[in-house]
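I would like you to help me understand the sequence and structure tokens below and explain how sequence relates to structure.
___
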Amino acid sequence: MSRFQVVSGKGGTGKTTVAAALSLALATEGKRTLLVEVEGRQGIAQLFETEVLPYEERKIAVAPGGGEVFALAIDPEQALLDYLQMFYKLGSAGRALKKLGAIDFATTVAPGIRDVLLTGKACEAVRRKDKSGRFAYDHVVMDAPPTGRITRFLNVNDEVAGLAKIGPIHNQAQAVMRVLKSPETAVHLVTLLEEMPVQETADGIAELRAAKLPVGRIIVNMVRPEVLDEAELELVRAAPRGALARSLSAAGLGGARRGGNAEKLVDPLLTQAEEYAERYALEHEQRSVLAELQLPLHELPLFTEGMDLAGLYELADELRKQRIS
């Protein structure tokens, strides 16, 4: 299992939830995982029901078996200050630049530098070791930008090529790319069994492969349970209306014992069955499209009452069962 897990997906697919659950799954049995946020949305804090994350690594959860999950919300301005201190030893001068707005200017007009800072901070955590020579974290999980811009975000070397041919920025970008294109890294894409997210996933995988970035797995999120299979749907389509009404009456639904009329239930039930059949066909079609991408495919269940902290642990357990972690 790669040590750096990057999680992306079309907006609305639940990529942040999957990234959070994956961090819990990877932290099982005494391991340490760092969960990194780069978009400034504080989605991690909301999922783990904790206070707003500062720009520091902070423990937010304990996984089964005593493992620990730490979280870091990377702020590009603070990351640039760290960078300036690391390479130029600016100290108080760096803080003065921030007051003057120079840092915000630099990260806005040169988005390539911004992405180097964000990915660089995460890659530093991947490489970091303690005094004994052990890695500080067994795994680092990044809740990355959406699929539409994940390749550009990760391919920082190309982004800064026109900005810096040599020097610390160039060297930093090279160091980041060595991690991102190594076996240590895997980029997972989260999707739903719907046409647009699946198409965006296919496009994203093609772009990642063209950039020679390591694609990991496809994670289908929020999968609704299968109520009827194909054979049962055929039975519903073929069954005469009268037979359906008699079956409903025999089951005590809409019959004399309830003072109703079973025939009145037939049309709503058939309409519901037809809607389910359409969704069933669409989902199977999208599964076929995903299968053609020739990547490990995993499905996670829909939590009909929404996602809370207990559900997050349940989702992490499902990831472990499917050996994603």
